[in-house]
Amino acid sequence: MTFLSRRTVLAGGGLLLGAACTRRFATPDQAGTLPIPRLLDARDHGQRIGLRAQEGETTFFPGRRSATMGYNGSYLGPTLRVHRGDDVTVTVSNNLSADTTVHWHGLLVPGELDGSPHQTISPGETWRPTLPIRQPAATLFYHSHAHGRTAEQVYAGLAGLLFVTDEEEQGLGLPSDYGVDDLPILIQDRQFVDGRLVLPAGMMVALDGRRGNVILVNGAYNPRADVPRSLVRLRLVNGSNARTYDLSFSDGRAFYWIGTEGGLLEKSVELQSLTLASGQRAEILVDFSDGKPVSLVSAPDQSTLRVHGMGMMHRHEASENNAGNETVLTFSPRLASSKRGSTTLPLLLASRAVPDPATVVARRRLVLNMRLGGMMDSDEEPLTINHRRFDIDRIDEEVELGAVEIWKVSGQKMAHPFHIHGVHFDVLRRDGEEPDLLDQGPRDTIVVDEPVELLIRFDQPAPKAPFLFHCHILEHEDEGMMGQFSVT
């Protein structure tokens, strides 16, 4: 697939026509209803799910078609739901013109099932992994992890949500009517020129990640969600390539944080704002019983890239009007509460066993290196981990199956969302102190600005197909800020 670059659009270049699918979304002056991805529950399909990666066209704005990619459609993919204790076979067909993969971000499976670059699917080929679902209920994320093409393919639309459910979660009485009071919220920023999706390029894109001037939710701009006048569960997923969102509600109302990337918290946390970096997820409960319309908003994208000798370099702003918060999604509590609808918040959520730090057998240190000054005339790679650029044929770390370790991770020049495949971890310390409030719970992606210490137990084998660890700014991982480890 040929993606439109900013230069092509500004020069008046045309679109590639004749693609498989076209889909329309809301316009800026006429917000449409929030699109809800089709739900594919594995138990409804004999524990078999089919995904087809394909090229297509999507009309995000009237009369402006954009070349895109999607699973089983032109942009994004269906929501997959699996149940703890089941074995689910997923058939993934590659109808693209390039290699791809499907990585089950946050799913705890052996290395050969992870969907990393070690499980590449060539054009015209099919991959059929059988996934053992053995982890607690959680909101996960699946997306392309093609070697050197992750950023481009995810930007084009190769992503979707994956829910794990279990009896413990189902017994809590949480909102669970999919698309009504249990909403998938996949947030992305994308760059549009004259209503067409473009692919930013250049040196600063490689360093800072692709950032957009439009926020999409489930592929739609400025949508409206009609919700019941009761507690509503929002499954928030940051599917952007690089941007971090500082989310709150336009009227300042409180909400209840109930889950992280690895599953439910032990008890809910009342908040008025929540930060999500690329790859991070959060489940929250919002009370709409007052019937008042309200918007989910984000602070402007104003974080900075620290350039030695140049002070702070502000990233490109994500809105033409950057004076206030940007609207992500508007809620209209116009639906009557269902029989299952509730305004009662569960006092306790999920219990879990945290590894004992006294059992730690090894400590490792990782530094996410960025070289900016003089990079054009230097042999040193600009984006590395421990000064080593990713090499798919090199094992960077060797871990023993069942071991408990502490990894101390630090970054340079900017805050990096750090993701480890095949594990959930706990944050022990941040900058030598107690973790922040938002560090709690089982995680698979954590923001690294100051050094963080992560407590990890390695329960998934990866003797031949290693797991990855990397910055989840997708352009950073494509450019080399990634390593891999075996578990034997």
From TrEMBL:
Give me the reactions it catalyses: 4 Cu(+) + O2 + 4 H(+) = 4 Cu(2+) + 2 H2O
PROSITE patterns under this entry? MULTICOPPER_OXIDASE2, PROKAR_LIPOPROTEIN, TAT
**Keywords, in A-Z order:** Metal-binding, Oxidoreductase
What InterPro entries does this protein's entry cite? Cu-oxidase-like_N, Cu-oxidase_C, Cu-oxidase_fam, Cu_oxidase_Cu_BS, Cupredoxin, TAT_signal
| Superkingdom assignment | Bacteria
- Record Pfam families: Cu-oxidase_2 (PF07731), Cu-oxidase_3 (PF07732)
Q: How does it assemble?
A: Monomer.
State the name under which the record lists this protein: Multicopper oxidase CueO
